[in-house]
Design a protein that fits this description.
Layout lengths: L1 H12 L18 E2 L2 E2 H4 L1 H12 L6 H12 L14 H6 L5 E3 L2 H7 L4 E8 L8 E9 L2 E5 L9 E3 L11 E8 L6
Antiparallel strand pairs: 1-2, 3-8, 4-5, 4-8, 5-6, 6-7
Helix pairs in contact: 1-4, 3-4
């Protein structure tokens, strides 16, 4: 029932219709997920939303949040989405997105033409919030979207290993966009 009232509220806030960066300072901050607002727990939802845009399969943010609440939310959405269950969303959309829990393996596999999502701890493992963001490899650079909840800019790196580290990394999702049948 909560997802229905949140969906109605989120539709009223309005769709961003573009990549979202700095979700705390964007109008989407007031969207709801479970019992919280996006400004507190929305990074995982924003990461999935941004990835769908990168895959040229945009989906409305309100609908993405509704689906993720059903398929991947922590209890009452109190902590946002569970990093290890987000694959259910991709499976339901028939997307061949891979999951890797090993940081070095993720970095080795994330090649040119890839895009994905990284979930990481923001501080001490198990005792800090989790943040998620979308990443893409394009023309020899790594671009990161919604890298921090407070910055409205896109970040650029030379290699994927510069985006996170093995101590804070929780899980990475990736897909080779160049081989993906759009």
């Amino acid at each position: 029932m909560l997802e229905k009232s949140n969906y109605k509220h989120n539709k009223a806030v309005g769709e961003p219709y573009a990549i979202v960066n700095g979700h705390r300072h964007n109008r989407v901050a007031s969207m709801k997920f479970g019992i919280k607002n996006f400004d507190a727990v929305g990074s995982g939802i924003i990461a999935v939303y941004n990835l769908m845009i990168l895959l040229n399969r945009p989906a409305p943010l309100a609908e993405t949040a509704r689906e993720l609440y059903i398929k991947a939310a922590t209890p009452l959405g109190f902590l946002g989405v569970h990093p290890l269950t987000v694959f259910r969303y991709f499976s339901s959309h028939y997307l061949p997105v891979n999951l890797d829990r090993d940081y070095d393996s993720f970095c080795d596999k994330f090649g040119s033409g890839f895009c994905g999502i990284i979930f990481k701890w923001t501080g001490r493992k198990f005792f800090s919030p989790i943040h998620a963001f979308a990443v893409e490899s394009y023309k020899g650079k790594i671009y990161v979207y919604n890298r921090t909840p407070d910055s409205a800019r896109r970040y650029e790196y030379q290699r994927i290993s510069a985006v996170s580290d093995s101590k804070s990394f929780i899980v990475g999702y990736y897909i080779n966009r160049d081989e993906f049948d759009r």
